[in-house]
Amino acid sequence: MNTQIGDRMTHTFLDTTIDFNILYKRRKSIGIYMDLYGQTEVHAPKGTPLDTILLALEDKWDCIILKSKEMKDRTAVPMEKVYDHGEVLLYLGASYPILISPNLEQNQDYVEFEQDKIHVYVKQHNDESIRQALKRFYYQRCKALVEARIRIYQPEFKIKPRSIRITDYSSNWGTCNSKLELTFNWKLAMAPIEAIDYVVVHEMCHMIHLNHDRSFWRLVGKILPDYERRSNWLALSGWKMTL
Q1: Which residues on adjacent β-strands are paired with residue 185?
Q2: What angle do CA 164, 167, 168 make, to 5 degrees?
Q3: Are the beta carbons of 162 and 197 closer than 8 angstroms?
C-alpha cells in the first residue's frame, strides 16, 4: 500500500511503513539514499513508473529499515565523553585530542585550536567547566564559519537572509523560515567544510523554495553537483558530533 502526503510518499511492505521522496533525474538506474535528516530518498531516471520504484524499495527493504534504526539509535544515545587529557573531539571533520590547562588566576575559561590539539584553559578542572568552554568555542567557530560560507555562496542568490543564528537544535543541522531567517546547529563546526557548505546551501535554497520539491533539489544540485556525497557524510557521521 502506498499513499502520498504533501511532497512525501509512504509505502507499506512486510507490515512496516516508511516515507520517502522521489527525485527524478538524468540517470540510468534507481538509487536509494538516506539524507542527513534520516529521510529516505529515491533517485530515479525520468519517466520511471511508480511500481518500478516501489519494487526497488522492497528489494532493499531490510537494509533501509536497519539503517534507519541505526541512525535513530545513534542520535538517541550519544557517546559519553570523558573531559580529560587525550579525549578526542571532532573539529572541521578531523579528530583532535583535548589538552586541559587549569589556572585559578585566569579571568575566564576559553578554548584555542592549536594545529594538532584543542587546548582548553579553565579555572578549575571539572567536567561542566570544560564542556561549557568547549561549547562556547564551537558556537563561536560555527558562527564565523557559517557567515563566511554564506558570503561565498551569496552571489548564487538574488535575495539575502534576514538573520543568521546559531542554536542548539537536536534534530536539524539548519532551518530556514518564510521570513528568510536562517538558523544552524553549533555542532556543524565539527563537520568538514564540504559538509558545512551543503547545509549552508541547503538552507539558502530554502529562501527560494521552502519545501523539498524538484525545483529545490535542482537548485541545490546546480550550486553543489556533488551534494549527495556531502550530505552522506553527515548522515553517516553526524552521530559522532557530540560533546
Answers
A1: 167
A2: 165
A3: no
How far is 132 from 153, CA to CA, in rounded Å?
A: 31
Which helix (H) or strand (E) segment holds residue 166: the answer is strand 163-167
CA distance 172 to 83: 26
Interatomic CA distance for residues 198 and 205, integer angstroms: 10
42, 10 Cβ separation under 8 angstroms: no
Q: Please give the span between the terminal C-alpha atoms of the chain, in angstroms, as a whole number.
A: 42
Counting other chains too, the contacts that 41-45 makes at CB distance below 8 Å and 24 or more residues apart are 43/228
Round the CA-based radius of gyration of the chain to a whole number and report it. Answer: 20
Assess contact for 206 and 235: CB atoms under 8 A: no
d(CA 125, CA 34): 41
Give every CB contact of residue 96 below 8 A, 6+ residues apart in sequence: 88, 89, 90, 113, 116, 117, 118
What are 48-87's pLDDT values in tens digits? 999 999 999 999 888 888 877 766 665 555 556 777 878 8
Positive or negative CA dihedral for 213, 219, 225, 229? Answer: negative
pTM: 0.69
Q: Is there a contact between 81 and 87 (Cβ–Cβ < 8 Å)?
A: yes
Mean pLDDT of 190-203: 95
Q: How confident is the model at residue 195 (pLDDT cuts 50, 70, 90)?
A: very high
